[in-house]
Design a protein that fits this description.
This protein is α+β, with helices and mostly antiparallel strands and about 140 residues long. About 25% of the residues lie in helices and about 30% in strands. A five-stranded antiparallel β-sheet has the order 2-1-3-4-5. The chain starts with 9 loop residues before the first strand and ends in an 8-residue tail after the last helix.
Length: about 140
């Protein structure tokens, strides 16, 4: 059971990958991971993280979006990445902070959002709610 008896904020975040308006989620197996990566190959998709910061007195619910473009992936690229098993438990079937960085051509937005924590959004919210403690005054 979550105890919110003090004023310390509790943070919850979840991240999804969206392409053509469809949530990709986390792959169920290697074939599913390969299919997701093939779908992302040579294309731009969105990484959307929902963030909730809550105390007994208030709650902030927001999201951040980062656009990620994959380079065109070869069958060899796919086999190597899927074989690494890094896709396991990863939205969209990749981890940009690991071997998945090699799949990416460019990003627009917060890199850490793609990793799974929209850090720029979080710092901004903490600076607003706790001026003088977080941020620059």
């Amino acid at each position: 059971m979550l105890d919110l008896a003090d004023d310390r904020p509790v943070l919850g975040v979840d991240t999804e990958v969206v392409v053509d308006g469809e949530l990709l989620g986390k792959p169920t197996d290697a074939a599913d991971a390969e299919a997701m990566l093939e779908r992302l190959s040579g294309r731009t998709h969105e990484v959307i993280s929902g963030l909730c910061l809550v105390t007994p007195a208030w709650e902030e619910v927001h999201h951040d979006v980062t656009e990620v473009t994959f380079r065109a992936l070869t069958a060899r690229d796919l086999a190597h990445y899927v074989g690494s098993r890094e896709w396991e438990g990863r939205a969209g079937g990749y981890a940009i902070q690991g071997l998945g960085a090699g799949l990416v051509e460019r990003i627009e937005g917060d890199y850490l959002n793609v990793v799974g924590l929209p850090a720029a959004l979080l710092v901004r919210l903490l600076a607003q709610r706790f001026a003088g403690i977080y941020g620059f005054g």
